[in-house]
Amino acid sequence: MAFQNIAVLGAGAWGTALANVAARAGRDVTLWTRDPRVAADITASHESPRLPGVKLHDGIIVTAALEAALTADAILLALPAQALRMVAAEIDGHVAPGTPLIACAKGIEQQTGKFMTEVIAESAPEALPAILSGPSFAADVSRGLPTAVTLAASEQKVAAALAQALGSATFRPYHATDVRGVEIGGAAKNVLAIAAGIVQGRGLGASAAAALTTRGFAELARFGRAYGAQPETLTGLSGLGDLILTCSSPQSRNFSLGVALGQGRTPAEARGDKLAEGAFTAPILVAMAKQQNVDMPIANAVAAVLEGSLDVDAAIESLLTRPFRAEG
Predict the structure, then answer these.
(1) How many other C-beta atoms can be found within 10 angstroms of the C-beta atom of residue 88?
(2) How far apart are CA 317 and CA 327, in angstroms?
(3) How would DSSP label each residue in 272-325?
(4) Residue 321 has what pLDDT?
(5) 283: closest CA among 266, 270, 260, 267?
(6) What letter would DSSP give residue 9?
(7) DSSP 8-state code for residue 108
(8) How confident is the model at residue 322, as a pLDDT?
(9) How remote is the C-alpha of 256 from its chain's centroid?
(10) Whole-angstrom Cα distance, residue 125 to residue 181?
(11) Which of 286, 5, 318, 21 is nearest to 145 (CA)?
């Protein structure tokens, strides 16, 4: 399990960053994009159009031929959550049994309510599903700024070997076996980051932002417990750590979406042409919470604002006028 050959599927900002991570760790890296023109442009410029100003490591091979990436020892799926099933299905039957497929998206499949590793298990059953998540912005990671994340797989030895293969002085993956807990943290924090952005966009102040993030974590923890997450995972990098980062920086697309909503833009205007995973995750997160009788008022408010059934001011009022209760 040396995992010397690493493939990254998806040449967006996060895929580019992870390709640099693997190359920096001394791995042989192939970066795949579906569009041959994009592959040619990146090869010529050594730079992804989604991450301008960041040079791709010289040793990375960029290709639009999927089969060229599928001989890798491990494959990082740096794809949007809602596109993961399609690509995983293309991979099925073309990778060696037991090859780790590492989901790098933070979301829940909207149509099925499946987590990313569940999608991989269904679509490429001979592969070994894994998840990489944690407080990390692509621009920071690609430039080699210090970052720590969680990498989880059901088999401890595999998770540890993958962490060793990708780790370097500036990129530190902590390995774990609590796959579900890592996935829950990544998915839920995106929804809560939209709420934090609304607080910022509405100018409600730093005290409100701190309260929102704290109460948001209480919601994340309740949801996590209901779906079997381990407490130490929820308070770790992929839970609380990622929530703190995403709820505090305009580098987060979810936070920026919330800021736009808080400033009075409609959900359609706020989304624009940028992918914010929390917008897709919010309705299914709320539905799953309801199934387990998990109280998530902040997530409920975000979902209602995004679907247009509640305006921002009414959503804020609904949270501020909730009955007083013991903290927990």
Answers:
(1) 25
(2) 19
(3) TTS--HHHHHHHHHHHHHHHTT---HHHHHHHHHHHTSS-HHHHHHHHHTSPP-
(4) 81
(5) 267
(6) E
(7) B
(8) 80
(9) 15
(10) 21
(11) 21
Tokens of 192: 């809560």
State how far the Cα of 198 lies from the Cα of 264, in Å rounded to an integer.
Answer: 9
DSSP states of 47-105? B-TTSTT-BPPTT-EEES-HHHHTTSSEEEE-S-GGGHHHHHHHHTTSS-TT-EEEE--
Tokens 């990375």 -> residue: 60
Residue ranges of the chain whose pLDDT lies below 70: none
8 Å CB contact between 50 and 79: no
Question: Residues with catalytic annotation?
Answer: 189
Helix then strand count (H, E) for the chain reads 16, 8
Q: What is the pLDDT of residues 126-142, one digit of tens each?
A: 999 999 999 999 999 99
Helix (H, G, I), strand (E, B) or coil at 132: strand
What is the DSSP secondary-structure string of 163-227?
Answer: HHHH--SSEEEEEES-HHHHHHHHHHHHHHHHHHHHHHHTT--HHHHHHHHHHHHHHHHHHHHHT
**What is the amino acid identity at position 182?**
V
Hey, what amino acid is at 113?
G
Inter-axis angle of helices 277-291 and 297-307, nearest 10: 130
- pLDDT confidence of residue 218: 96
